[in-house]
Amino acid sequence: MGGFIAAFLLPVLIYLVGIAYPLGLWPVANGDPTSAILNHHHIGTLFLFVTVAGSLYHGIFRFQSTLTEIGLARAKRALEAIGYLIIIIGILATAIYLLQYNPSFFSIP
Amino acid sequence: MIREWTSFFVAVFSLIYIYELSLFASGAKENALALMRNPGIITFNVLALLFTLYHASTWFYLIGKVQPIKLGKMTSKPWQALLLNIVLLLIISYTVIQILILR
Protein backbone atom coordinates (compact mmCIF):
# COMPACT_ATOMS: atom_id res chain seq x y z
CA MET A 1 0.00 0.00 0.00
CA GLY A 2 2.87 2.38 0.86
CA GLY A 3 4.52 1.58 -2.48
CA PHE A 4 1.26 2.32 -4.29
CA ILE A 5 0.97 5.71 -2.53
CA ALA A 6 4.65 6.57 -3.15
CA ALA A 7 4.24 5.72 -6.83
CA PHE A 8 0.91 7.44 -7.56
CA LEU A 9 0.52 10.31 -5.04
CA LEU A 10 4.00 11.33 -3.89
CA PRO A 11 5.36 12.67 -7.23
CA VAL A 12 2.65 15.34 -7.49
CA LEU A 13 3.21 16.42 -3.85
CA ILE A 14 7.00 16.69 -4.36
CA TYR A 15 6.43 18.70 -7.53
CA LEU A 16 3.90 21.08 -5.95
CA VAL A 17 5.59 21.85 -2.62
CA GLY A 18 9.22 21.18 -3.45
CA ILE A 19 9.71 22.41 -7.01
CA ALA A 20 6.76 24.38 -8.46
CA TYR A 21 6.31 26.68 -5.43
CA PRO A 22 9.94 27.73 -4.85
CA LEU A 23 10.66 28.08 -8.58
CA GLY A 24 7.33 29.85 -9.36
CA LEU A 25 6.13 27.22 -11.83
CA TRP A 26 2.59 26.19 -12.86
CA PRO A 27 0.18 25.75 -11.07
CA VAL A 28 1.35 27.41 -7.83
CA ALA A 29 3.09 30.57 -9.01
CA ASN A 30 0.95 32.83 -6.79
CA GLY A 31 0.73 31.09 -3.43
CA ASP A 32 2.03 28.29 -1.31
CA PRO A 33 0.56 24.88 -2.13
CA THR A 34 0.37 23.55 1.44
CA SER A 35 -2.06 26.33 2.45
CA ALA A 36 -4.03 25.81 -0.79
CA ILE A 37 -4.30 22.06 -0.12
CA LEU A 38 -5.22 22.51 3.56
CA ASN A 39 -7.84 25.13 2.64
CA HIS A 40 -9.74 22.29 0.94
CA HIS A 41 -10.39 21.14 4.48
CA HIS A 42 -11.38 17.44 4.60
CA ILE A 43 -10.13 16.21 1.24
CA GLY A 44 -6.92 18.26 1.34
CA THR A 45 -6.08 17.17 4.88
CA LEU A 46 -6.86 13.55 4.01
CA PHE A 47 -4.69 13.75 0.87
CA LEU A 48 -1.72 15.09 2.87
CA PHE A 49 -2.13 12.50 5.63
CA VAL A 50 -2.43 9.52 3.28
CA THR A 51 0.45 10.68 1.06
CA VAL A 52 2.91 11.64 3.82
CA ALA A 53 2.12 8.72 6.17
CA GLY A 54 2.08 6.13 3.36
CA SER A 55 5.31 7.44 1.84
CA LEU A 56 7.05 7.60 5.22
CA TYR A 57 6.06 3.99 5.94
CA HIS A 58 7.22 2.82 2.51
CA GLY A 59 10.46 4.83 2.54
CA ILE A 60 11.63 3.89 6.04
CA PHE A 61 10.55 0.23 5.72
CA ARG A 62 12.35 -0.24 2.37
CA PHE A 63 15.41 1.73 3.47
CA GLN A 64 15.98 -0.31 6.63
CA SER A 65 15.70 -3.54 4.64
CA THR A 66 18.17 -2.10 2.08
CA LEU A 67 20.64 -1.41 4.90
CA THR A 68 20.41 -5.01 6.09
CA GLU A 69 21.04 -6.23 2.52
CA ILE A 70 24.23 -4.17 2.10
CA GLY A 71 26.02 -5.63 5.09
CA LEU A 72 24.19 -4.50 8.20
CA ALA A 73 22.39 -7.82 8.64
CA ARG A 74 23.79 -8.16 12.17
CA ALA A 75 21.95 -5.01 13.19
CA LYS A 76 18.67 -6.13 11.60
CA ARG A 77 16.70 -6.16 14.87
CA ALA A 78 17.98 -2.73 15.92
CA LEU A 79 17.34 -1.26 12.45
CA GLU A 80 13.79 -2.64 12.44
CA ALA A 81 13.14 -1.21 15.91
CA ILE A 82 14.48 2.23 14.93
CA GLY A 83 12.62 2.11 11.62
CA TYR A 84 9.25 1.26 13.17
CA LEU A 85 9.80 3.88 15.89
CA ILE A 86 10.39 6.57 13.24
CA ILE A 87 7.32 5.36 11.30
CA ILE A 88 5.02 5.42 14.36
CA ILE A 89 6.26 8.82 15.61
CA GLY A 90 6.15 10.28 12.08
CA ILE A 91 2.59 9.11 11.39
CA LEU A 92 1.34 10.33 14.79
CA ALA A 93 3.11 13.68 14.33
CA THR A 94 1.57 14.11 10.85
CA ALA A 95 -1.92 13.44 12.26
CA ILE A 96 -1.40 15.82 15.20
CA TYR A 97 -0.03 18.69 13.04
CA LEU A 98 -2.83 18.31 10.49
CA LEU A 99 -5.45 18.30 13.27
CA GLN A 100 -3.82 21.36 14.85
CA TYR A 101 -4.15 23.16 11.52
CA ASN A 102 -7.70 21.91 10.90
CA PRO A 103 -9.17 21.26 14.39
CA SER A 104 -12.68 20.74 13.02
CA PHE A 105 -11.56 17.93 10.68
CA PHE A 106 -13.89 15.35 12.28
CA SER A 107 -16.95 17.63 12.14
CA ILE A 108 -19.45 16.91 9.38
CA PRO A 109 -19.11 19.49 6.56
CA MET B 1 20.18 -1.55 -6.41
CA ILE B 2 19.32 2.01 -7.52
CA ARG B 3 15.68 1.08 -7.08
CA GLU B 4 16.28 0.22 -3.40
CA TRP B 5 18.01 3.56 -2.77
CA THR B 6 14.97 5.49 -4.04
CA SER B 7 13.40 4.69 -0.65
CA PHE B 8 16.01 6.93 1.02
CA PHE B 9 14.71 9.96 -0.90
CA VAL B 10 11.07 9.01 -0.22
CA ALA B 11 11.78 8.71 3.53
CA VAL B 12 13.82 11.93 3.82
CA PHE B 13 11.31 13.98 1.79
CA SER B 14 8.50 12.71 4.06
CA LEU B 15 10.45 13.67 7.20
CA ILE B 16 11.27 17.16 5.85
CA TYR B 17 7.63 17.70 4.91
CA ILE B 18 6.43 16.55 8.36
CA TYR B 19 8.78 19.20 9.80
CA GLU B 20 7.25 21.80 7.45
CA LEU B 21 3.77 20.75 8.60
CA SER B 22 4.89 21.25 12.22
CA LEU B 23 5.94 24.81 11.34
CA PHE B 24 2.57 25.42 9.65
CA ALA B 25 0.70 24.02 12.66
CA SER B 26 2.66 26.15 15.13
CA GLY B 27 1.96 29.34 13.14
CA ALA B 28 5.53 29.71 11.82
CA LYS B 29 4.32 29.66 8.20
CA GLU B 30 7.04 32.06 6.97
CA ASN B 31 9.76 29.78 8.33
CA ALA B 32 8.18 26.80 6.52
CA LEU B 33 8.02 28.74 3.25
CA ALA B 34 11.63 29.93 3.69
CA LEU B 35 12.69 26.30 4.17
CA MET B 36 10.90 25.33 0.93
CA ARG B 37 12.81 28.10 -0.92
CA ASN B 38 16.22 26.95 0.37
CA PRO B 39 18.41 26.05 -2.69
CA GLY B 40 19.70 22.89 -0.98
CA ILE B 41 16.15 21.71 -0.28
CA ILE B 42 15.08 22.50 -3.87
CA THR B 43 18.02 20.46 -5.23
CA PHE B 44 17.13 17.59 -2.91
CA ASN B 45 13.47 17.79 -4.02
CA VAL B 46 14.46 17.62 -7.73
CA LEU B 47 16.52 14.49 -6.98
CA ALA B 48 13.68 13.08 -4.86
CA LEU B 49 11.20 13.60 -7.71
CA LEU B 50 13.52 11.90 -10.24
CA PHE B 51 14.14 8.93 -7.92
CA THR B 52 10.43 8.66 -7.06
CA LEU B 53 9.49 8.60 -10.74
CA TYR B 54 12.20 5.99 -11.36
CA HIS B 55 10.80 3.92 -8.49
CA ALA B 56 7.26 4.28 -9.87
CA SER B 57 8.17 3.28 -13.42
CA THR B 58 10.22 0.22 -12.35
CA TRP B 59 7.34 -0.81 -10.08
CA PHE B 60 4.80 -0.42 -12.92
CA TYR B 61 7.04 -2.59 -15.15
CA LEU B 62 7.39 -5.24 -12.42
CA ILE B 63 3.60 -5.39 -11.96
CA GLY B 64 3.27 -6.23 -15.66
CA LYS B 65 5.95 -8.89 -15.34
CA VAL B 66 4.63 -10.55 -12.15
CA GLN B 67 0.91 -10.29 -12.89
CA PRO B 68 0.32 -10.39 -16.64
CA ILE B 69 -3.34 -10.08 -17.66
CA LYS B 70 -4.77 -12.73 -19.98
CA LEU B 71 -7.42 -11.59 -22.46
CA GLY B 72 -8.43 -14.58 -24.59
CA LYS B 73 -5.27 -15.78 -26.38
CA MET B 74 -3.42 -12.53 -25.67
CA THR B 75 -1.27 -11.95 -22.58
CA SER B 76 -0.29 -8.43 -21.59
CA LYS B 77 3.38 -7.41 -21.81
CA PRO B 78 5.28 -5.56 -19.04
CA TRP B 79 5.72 -2.44 -21.21
CA GLN B 80 1.91 -2.28 -21.65
CA ALA B 81 1.48 -2.24 -17.85
CA LEU B 82 4.17 0.45 -17.66
CA LEU B 83 2.42 2.60 -20.26
CA LEU B 84 -1.04 2.14 -18.73
CA ASN B 85 0.18 3.01 -15.21
CA ILE B 86 2.10 6.07 -16.42
CA VAL B 87 -1.14 7.32 -18.01
CA LEU B 88 -2.92 6.58 -14.71
CA LEU B 89 -0.20 8.48 -12.78
CA LEU B 90 -0.66 11.52 -15.05
CA ILE B 91 -4.47 11.40 -14.63
CA ILE B 92 -4.20 11.12 -10.81
CA SER B 93 -1.62 13.95 -10.66
CA TYR B 94 -3.74 16.26 -12.80
CA THR B 95 -6.87 15.40 -10.78
CA VAL B 96 -5.05 16.31 -7.53
CA ILE B 97 -3.89 19.62 -9.02
CA GLN B 98 -7.35 20.37 -10.42
CA ILE B 99 -9.22 19.63 -7.17
CA LEU B 100 -6.75 20.90 -4.56
CA ILE B 101 -4.94 23.78 -6.29
CA LEU B 102 -6.83 25.14 -9.29
CA ARG B 103 -10.39 24.94 -7.98
CATH fold name of chain B: 3 helical TM bundles of succinate and fumarate reductases
- Spans of chain B of at least 5 consecutive residues whose pLDDT stays below 50 are none
Please state the second-level CATH architecture of chain B: Up-down Bundle
**What kind of sheet is the major sheet of chain A?**
none
* Separation of the first and last Cα atoms of chain B: 40 Å
Brief overview:
The complex is a heterodimer of chains A (109) and B (103). Chain A has five helices and no strands. Chain A is mainly α and 109 residues long.
What is the topology?
The complex is a heterodimer of chains A (109) and B (103).
Chain A: H1 2-8, H2 10-23, H3 33-38, H4 41-69, H5 76-101
Helix pairs in contact in A: 1-4, 4-5
Chain B: H1 2-25, H2 29-36, H3 39-66, E1 70-71, E2 74-75, H4 78-102
Antiparallel strand pairs in B: 1-2
Helix pairs in contact in B: 1-2, 1-3, 3-4
Q: How would you explain this protein's 3D organization?
A:
The complex is a heterodimer of chains A (about 110) and B (about 100). Chain A is mainly α. In chain A, about 75% of the residues lie in helices and about 0% in strands. Chain A is built from five helices and no strands. Chain B is mostly helical. Chain B has one domain: 3 helical TM bundles of succinate and fumarate reductases (Up-down Bundle), CATH 1.20.1300. Chain B has a two-stranded antiparallel sheet with strand order 1-2. In chain B, helix 1 (about 1-25) packs antiparallel against helix 2 (about 30-35), helix 1 crosses helix 3 and helix 3 (about 40-65) packs across helix 4. The radius of gyration of chain B is 18 Å and the shape is elongated.
Defining key terms:
heterodimer; A: 109 residues; mainly alpha; 3 helical TM bundles of succinate and fumarate reductases; B: mainly alpha; two-stranded antiparallel sheet; 83% helix
